[in-house]
Write a structure and sequence with these properties.
- This protein is α+β, with helices and mostly antiparallel strands and 167 residues long.
- It folds into 2 domains: 104 residues, no CATH class; 60 residues, no CATH class.
- It has 3 helices and 8 strands; from the N terminus they run E-E-H-H-E-E-E-E-E-E-H.
- A 5-stranded antiparallel beta sheet has the order 1-2-3-4-5. Strands 6-7-8 form a 3-stranded antiparallel beta sheet.
- The radius of gyration is 21 Å and the shape is elongated.
Amino acid sequence: MEIIQTSDPRVIKIKPVTGCSRLTGMVFGAPFLLVGILIILLPVFKPGEFSGGHASAITVGGALFAMAGAVMAFRRYGVTIDMHERAVIRWWGVVFPLRKSRFMVDEYTDVKVGPGVKQGEKITGDSSYPVVLKGPADKEAKLVYVKGHKEAKAMASRVAEFTGLNT
């Protein structure tokens, strides 16, 4: 994950670093998408072989396959921190944001690094660590997962500095 300073000095975005993970999504997602589209079109090209419920079942199955491929190939996610509104917006979507979660900075007191997500049986140096907003009464909001503890601490420190929260 990387922090991107926008043209507005009071707004930053946190997005995944493009590269291998982005390419992996495209490589695995595109075949699912294409096969799903072909399955959807199968009853159109061979109408005599599929009748009634069979054509509908094939079309639904193809649509599900194509949607899974589209999500893998074109998913997007990130976090926007807007200090004009004192808000943190976590979003995800396919091609463009479809779902947003909004958290008010004033409801939290700290930015911390959560426990590592296990890779198999143990936590390793390559494990992912959540950067978390913490508030009173165990209130928390996970912002992003960062690979490596040192990188997660740096991200939490930068977010805390930008928002004025404690680390």
